[in-house]
Amino acid sequence: MKASKKERKDFVGIDEVGRGPLAGPVALCAFLWFGNRVPKELKWIKDSKKISEKKREEWYAKILEFKKEGKCDFRVVYKSAKYIDKWGISNAIKEALKSALTPLPLNSKKVTVLLDGGLKAPSEYLNQETIIKGDTKEFVISAAAIMAKVSRDKLMKKLGKKFPKYGFEIHKGYGTVAHRKAVREFGMCEEHRRTYIHG
Questions:
Q1: Is position 149 within any domain?
Q2: pTM score > 0.90 for this model?
Q3: Cα 48 from chain centroid?
Q4: Lower CB density within 10 Å: C or N end of the chain?
Q5: How many separate domains does the chain show?
Q6: Can you tell me the mean pLDDT for 50-56?
């Protein structure tokens, strides 16, 4: 066990957010922690869906500090509503995953990649494990979920200012009653997934 950990010293957690909204991109984060599958720095991290927005933002800030300290690295990649409409959500997530992993400083043959739910890394990543509810079981996946969620929320707040009729800053593009009412009243904007609304 110790030899295996020494050989595969870096761990990547992968998770995505925004699979189901009517508007905005899907976001995926590949989060790389150097040297430990269970880092003490992430001991109290939780599934992003089970903590408050304030707590998520606190963790986001902490992780940025860990990156500055050289303890971790991460990439958040978006695939737009237009991309999702053209290629489908599954392909969008697959391509985002590849794009998020590629720039990270890792060895695809030695790094261990831990993925949430039904996600799968490209075949060159020899040591990978897909974990159901991984965002509640693996700290590096929890971190990936938080970075993806906070990053996407920040983007949706910006889009809320650009398209003030829809309330993106409130519902983040999800199909709330208010959001659907706004679509009926004003039609769709360029950030809406047409295949989700009319598909």
A1: yes
A2: yes
A3: 10
A4: N
A5: 1
A6: 91
